[in-house]
Every structure is written in C-alpha cells, then in structure tokens.
Amino acid sequence: MKLSKQFPLNALRVFEAVARLGSFTKAGEELGMTQTAVSYQVKLLEENIGEPLFLRRPRMISLTDAGERLAPRVTEGFAMLAEAMESLRQASEETLTIHSTATFAQQWLSRHLGSFQLKHPNIAVRLKTSATLIDFNREAADLAVRWGDGNWPGLCCHRIMRLDFSPMLSPVLAAKVGGVHTPADLLKLSIISAGDHWWRIWFAAAGIDNPGLEKFPRNELGTQIMDASVAAAGQGVAILNPGHFEEDIAAGRLYQPFELSCNDGRDYWLAYPGNRRNVPKIRAFRNWIIDEMGAHDL
What we know:
The chain is 45% helix and 15% strand. By secondary structure, the chain is α/β, with parallel strands linked by helices.
C-alpha cells in the first residue's frame, strides 16, 4: 500500500482546520478550498479510519468520540512538523555555503571574509573549494565564485575581478642570471606549467610568437597557488594573476618583471541561481563583495 493511502496527510490537514475552527466553511476559507472540497477530504479520512469524525447537524458540526481522540494528536503532529520546518529554515538562513576556486578562496576571500562577518555576524559561512563548475541543481551551494566568461544560463552573474596574467618569479632567481631585462630572458629559466595557454598568449603579446615552450616539462600543478609557491622558492617563472599575489610582491618573495599583462576573456564571477537573487543572505554577500572589490579597486 502506498504511503499516501496509509497516511492521508492532506486529509489530516483539512481535518485539523475543521476541528479547530468548528466549521467546514471557515476551514475552506483558511485553506483556500471550497466547502465541497473540504467535505470530500474529511470523507476520505473517515473512510480511511473506518468511522465518522464529525456529527453533522443543521448549521452546526461537532466532533465524535473518535474525532475528539484524533484532533489533539493531529494538532500536535502538525505543530511538530511546523517546528521542524522552521528550524531548517532558520539554519538555512544562518549558513551561507560558497563554492570557490582554491586560488581565489585562499588569496582573496580568506583575507577579506572577516569584513563580511563583522557586518553580518548572524550568517555563518561554509566555504568549499573546487576546480570544476558546480551544478546548483545537484550541489548544496548558495553562491559560487567561478572563472569564465560569465555566460551561464539561469544564473545571475557579477564580474568581481579581472583575471589578468603576467610572468612572475623570485627576485633572488632573477639576480642569479644577471636580471630579467627582456621577455626572451625568461626563456633562459625554467618555465613553470609550460603547457598553460596563458604563456603563449603573453609571449605573443610581448612579440615572441615561437617561444619554444615545448622544451620545458609539461607539468600541471593544478592551481596558481602551487605555481606561485614553486616560483617563490626560486624554481622557475610562473604565469600568475598579479592581483592575487600583492602581499608576496610587497614582501619580496615574487616580482613582476614586465608591466605587460594579458587577459583571455575569462575573469572571476560571482554566480547564483536567478530565482534566489532576493534571498537575504545571498543579497547580503553579493552587495558586500561588490562593495569590497570596489574599495580595493580590483
């Protein structure tokens, strides 16, 4: 037997309203149903139980003994369900789940998130990192920081950071080879993640159409953070977004030898389902990060 026949939830909901209000008409008005539909649901419940729940008299109804026994239990049951739903809604409102690329999460978001928490102390943040574009229909997430062109149907998207790129290396390594004076000088050093298409774009913009990158190992370290760590250790030159590594530049761990930066049309975007754009916690984070990015001129 199907659960709906064993436990006629809709009919119980109608019964609870009739018992509480003492009227089929008033119950129909509360539930947005006709009096006929209310009577039908009560009849279905009575057939399911096997005995009448109401004594029907002209202009008046009253509960039978069976109805008297059932009514408080049904009221209590719906109260428990309402409490459970409210508890889940409250938890959902208080926790903001963000998916982000690892580099953006570590190099920018983690360093500024305290500002959001100060403005919204009632919202807890759950941060998850992923190299793939998440599907909001399949994953528990409120927002995502994505890398791409911002063209994702069904999502609201706001560009929050340009993802420019330029070669960066350790000043110590540059000094060891007598300095890096021209783009061609970079090719005297080890090129980190030489298979990254950013390298060819940058060298072409610098006037070197055939840099010979195929002679370098085709390593793939996965994130800019890893590439930057290898470069800071003096192990080669990485192609990075300078905006992510301002602290490393300021501390002398990395430096950008040339002002030339490129962009392949893909930037960082804040994305979320269009039908959730007015959810308070999403709206709060969206407004905060857009203001924060403007304040830091990124």
